[in-house]
TrEMBL record:
<comment type="pathway">
    <text>Cofactor biosynthesis; 7,8-dihydroneopterin triphosphate biosynthesis; 7,8-dihydroneopterin triphosphate from GTP: step 1/1.</text>
</comment>
<keyword id="KW-0479">Metal-binding</keyword>
<feature type="binding site">
    <location>
        <position position="91"/>
    </location>
    <ligand>
        <name>Zn(2+)</name>
    </ligand>
</feature>
<dbReference type="InterPro" id="IPR018234">
    <property type="entry name" value="GTP_CycHdrlase_I_CS"/>
</dbReference>
<dbReference type="GO" id="GO:0006730">
    <property type="term" value="P:one-carbon metabolic process"/>
</dbReference>
<dbReference type="GO" id="GO:0006729">
    <property type="term" value="P:tetrahydrobiopterin biosynthetic process"/>
</dbReference>
<feature type="binding site">
    <location>
        <position position="88"/>
    </location>
    <ligand>
        <name>Zn(2+)</name>
    </ligand>
</feature>
<feature type="domain" description="GTP cyclohydrolase I">
    <location>
        <begin position="18"/>
        <end position="195"/>
    </location>
</feature>
<feature type="binding site">
    <location>
        <position position="159"/>
    </location>
    <ligand>
        <name>Zn(2+)</name>
    </ligand>
</feature>
<keyword id="KW-0378">Hydrolase</keyword>
<dbReference type="GO" id="GO:0005737">
    <property type="term" value="C:cytoplasm"/>
</dbReference>
<keyword id="KW-0342">GTP-binding</keyword>
<dbReference type="InterPro" id="IPR020602">
    <property type="entry name" value="GTP_CycHdrlase_I_dom"/>
</dbReference>
<comment type="similarity">
    <text>Belongs to the GTP cyclohydrolase I family.</text>
</comment>
<dbReference type="GO" id="GO:0005525">
    <property type="term" value="F:GTP binding"/>
</dbReference>
<keyword id="KW-0547">Nucleotide-binding</keyword>
<dbReference type="GO" id="GO:0046654">
    <property type="term" value="P:tetrahydrofolate biosynthetic process"/>
</dbReference>
Length: 199
C-alpha cells in the first residue's frame, strides 16, 4: 500500500508571524509592548522575507540559460569565494561562509553569476551544511550535465560559536565531488589546488 506524502502546512499570515515573534520576546523575558520592541515583530517578519527568500526561487531556472561552450576552451571553470549567509535548521542560528564551485563543461556553459545565484538560493533556506553542499552540486550536475562538478563550502556556525560549546574561530568544511571530480584524482586535485586552502 502506497504511503501518502504529508501535505505541506498552510503558510501563516503576516500577522500570525508577528504574533509569534511577540510570544518569543515575552518568553525570553522581555516586554514586547515596551517602546524599543514595539516594531520588532514587523522588522523580524521583514527580515525573514529576505533571509528565507530561497523558498520562493527555483535554482534550476538560473541554470537553464546556457551558452555553447566557448570555442577552443574545454577546461575546468571555477568560481571561488562565493560568500553566503544561511541559517541552521536545528537552532535557527546564522551560518556564515563561502562556497567554491567548479565544473568541467560537456557541451555548454552558464554565466558565472548564475552559479552564485544557485548558491544563494539554497543558502536562503533553513539548512544543514552537508545537505546544502550536496544540493548545489547535484543541481548543477542535473541541469548542465557537465563531465563533473566540485563544491567545497567553509562556514562558521553560530549555533556552535554563540551557544552550547561557545567555540569561536571554528569553521566547518564540506565537499561534494561528482563525475570526473570524484573518479579522477587528478581532476579533483586540480580543483582543490585552484580554490586554495579552505578559509
Amino acid at each position: 500500500m502506497a504511503t501518502r506524502t504529508p501535505r505541506k502546512p498552510k503558510k501563516p499570515s503576516r500577522k500570525q508571524a508577528e504574533e509569534a515573534v511577540s510570544t518569543l520576546l515575552l518568553w525570553a523575558g522581555d516586554d514586547p509592548r515596551r517602546e524599543g520592541l514595539l516594531d520588532t515583530p514587523k522588522r523580524v517578519a521583514r527580515a525573514y522575507e529576505d533571509w528565507f527568500s530561497g523558498y520562493n526561487d527555483d535554482p534550476v531556472n538560473y541554470l537553464k540559460r546556457t551558452f555553447e561552450e566557448v570555442e577552443g576552451y574545454d577546461e575546468m571553470i571555477v568560481l571561488r569565494d562565493i560568500s553566503f549567509e544561511s541559517h541552521c535548521e536545528h537552532h535557527m542560528a546564522p551560518i556564515i561562509g563561502c562556497a567554491h564551485v567548479g565544473y568541467l563543461p560537456n557541451d555548454k556553459v552558464v554565466g558565472i553569476s548564475k552559479l552564485a545565484r544557485v548558491v544563494e538560493t539554497f543558502a536562503r533556506r533553513f539548512q544543514v551544511q552537508e545537505k546544502m553542499t550536496a544540493q548545489i552540486a547535484h543541481c548543477i550536475q542535473d541541469v548542465l550535465k557537465p563531465k563533473g562538478v566540485g563544491v567545497v563550502i567553509s562556514a562558521s556556525h553560530q549555533c556552535m560559536t554563540t551557544r552550547g560549546v561557545h567555540k569561536s574561530g571554528v569553521s566547518m568544511v564540506t565537499s561534494q565531488m561528482l563525475g570526473t571530480f570524484r573518479k579522477d584524482a587528478r581532476t579533483r586535485a586540480e580543483f582543490l589546488n585552484m580554490i586554495g586552502p579552505a578559509r
